[in-house]
């Protein structure tokens, strides 16, 4: 049976939410995944805590929060790559992420070796 693109996207969203809870101690408010050509784009809403929003009111605080959050996610990169590999069967070529201190939104982009969208 052929698995739909939406089913893959949903499965990735669920797995990354579970990873956040297990690895970071809390999950985001909502997660939306999109598969586009050779990319898996994950949009996570509600990443920052109220305390982190307060710290982000200064430029120095914002840079500290962004740096700390990036280091936390990067330290779990092998888990994240394995989530993508397990669900899609595709190896991750590169990983890119950033967080908005204004909206509390994180974007993760997994670049794959192959055009996964074409194969589903």
List its traits:
120 residues; alpha+beta; Threonyl-tRNA Synthetase, Chain A, domain 2; 4-stranded antiparallel sheet; 4 helices; elongated
Strand count, sense and barrel status of the largest sheet are:
4 strands, antiparallel
Report the radius of gyration as a whole number of Å: 15 Å
Number of helices: 4
Distance between the termini: 11 Å
What number of structural domains do the residues give?
Answer: 1
Assigned CATH class:
Alpha Beta
Tally the beta strands: 4
Low-confidence stretches: none
Beta fraction? 25-35%
The helix content is 40-55%
Mean pLDDT: 95
Query: Architecture, according to CATH?
Result: 2-Layer Sandwich
Look up the CATH topology. Answer: Threonyl-tRNA Synthetase, Chain A, domain 2
Strand order of the largest sheet: 1-2-4-3
Bulk shape: elongated
- Class computed from helices, strands and strand pairing: alpha+beta
Order of helices and strands: HEEHHHEE
